[in-house]
Amino acid sequence: GEFYPFGAKLLVNGDVIPVGVYTDNYTDSQELIKILEKAALEEFKNGNVVGYAIGIDVRVDGEDALMIKFTNDGKEWDQKIYKYKI
Questions:
Q1: Residue 31, SS3?
Q2: Any idea what DSSP says for residue 13?
Q3: Do residues 48 and 12 make contact, with C-beta atoms less than 8 angstroms apart?
Q4: For residue 1, is it within any domain?
Q5: Residue 16 falls within a domain, yes or no?
Q6: How far is CA 80 from CA 34, 46, 62, in A?
Q7: In total, how many domains does the chain have?
Q8: Which residue segment(s) compose the domain that 10 sits in?
Q9: How deeply is 50 buried, as exposed, middle or buried, from its count of CB atoms within 10 A (0-12, 13-18, 19+)?
Q10: Beta-bridge partners for 67
Q11: For the CA atoms of the chain, what is the radius of gyration?
């Protein structure tokens, strides 16, 4: 299956909040990822979060996979890839 990028933020109080991006028209997934990354950086600058993650639809060796990009400062991002089947 295919899906738009989505995010989650870990607040300083320990709550996890889902994050999404809404646009009035079709927006390329890469642009949505940039918007989510920029939002993460702002959240860190404001001291609102201690963690942020973005889920991205990818293909690995011809199979569906979920890439999770995560950061604890909004600047340096790590990633992990999970293959899945529906």
A1: helix
A2: T
A3: yes
A4: no
A5: yes
A6: 18, 26, 17
A7: 1
A8: 6-83
A9: middle
A10: 56, 81
A11: 13
Domain assignment present for residue 62? The answer is: yes
Q: CA-to-CA distance for 45 and 25, rounded, in angstroms?
A: 29
Question: What single-letter amino acid sits at 36?
Answer: L
The reported pTM is 0.91
CA 82 from chain centre, in angstroms, equals 14
User: Burial code of 66-84, b = ≥16 C-beta within 10 A, e = fewer?
Assistant: ebebbbeebeeeeeeeeee
Query: What confidence tens digit (pLDDT) does each residue in 20-74 have?
Result: 988 777 778 999 999 999 999 999 999 999 999 999 999 999 999 999 999 999 9
Tokens 């639809």: give the residue: 57
- For residue 71, which of 46, 32, 29, 43 has the smallest C-alpha distance? 43
Q: Taking CA 79 as the corner, what is the angle to CA 64 and CA 12, rounded to the nearest 5 degrees?
A: 120
CA distance readout (Å), 75 to 5, 43, 79: 18, 11, 13
Residue with tokens 């293909």: 59
